[in-house]
Amino acid sequence: MKNIGIITNREKDIGLKYTNQLIESVKRHGGQVILPTPNSSGKEGIDDEVNEICASCDLIICLGGDGTFLKAARAAYLYNIPMLGINLGSMGFLTDIEKGEIDKAVENIFSGNYKIEERMMISSKIYKGGKLFAEDEAINDVVISRGGIQRILHLSTFIDDNFIEMFPCDGIVLATPTGSTAYSLSAGGPIVDPTSNLIIVTPICPHILYSSSFIAKEEQIIKVCVADGFEHTALVNVDGQKLYEISGGDYLVIEKTNSKVKILKIDSKNFFTIVRNKFYDRKED
Q: Which of the chain's termini has less CB crowding within 10 Å, N or C?
């Protein structure tokens, strides 16, 4: 890898201290740095920055938190370009290189001491009146939640058209293995190896006597229907980046997509060891 694109959340890297350190390190190891035109939109303009530089990059390194990484990766995967994250946030499951490891990470990249993981993604199709209204793809998760009105949702869930459960709840998280350590975990879902191929379905605060997640195989299709009598607006959130409104009678179809997000990994530590360390050594923003 020779041409390294750099995307920075400038709100996280005040004065571009770590960005400049990364630039110097890449150049010192004989690499070419590709930088986007600075924009005034902050994090919201990151996807535009990625689109600007992708044609010239072998790798994109993203400095920020997991939200910044997701924003950038949702653009980069369309170009089949791998991503590496430098953690300027708190937990950093996607941005797993810490600030003090920048030089070592660059050295490993130019020495070829890395592997590239191809992570599963899911597609989300929203239907209104039986017709396709919107579709998107997610790296982490698709979340159905109630809107501003504090009314419980009734969500009927199916796998391959077989009825599973009608959840009276605040919502449902449909997560990839990569997203198992995000909202799904907070809602009580399991932690799974991010290189697995499966879909995790976790109800949010269900008003029933059990609240277990269930897991679908990668080839299975999940359908979630909003009860016809629900008169208010519910929300569909894709990767915390895109928002859609739905209401009674609308439904979602979730399945594995052929798209993959490529993540460059340098550290060979066991994933579950990393998870444990992240929680016990977590930092505050």
A: C
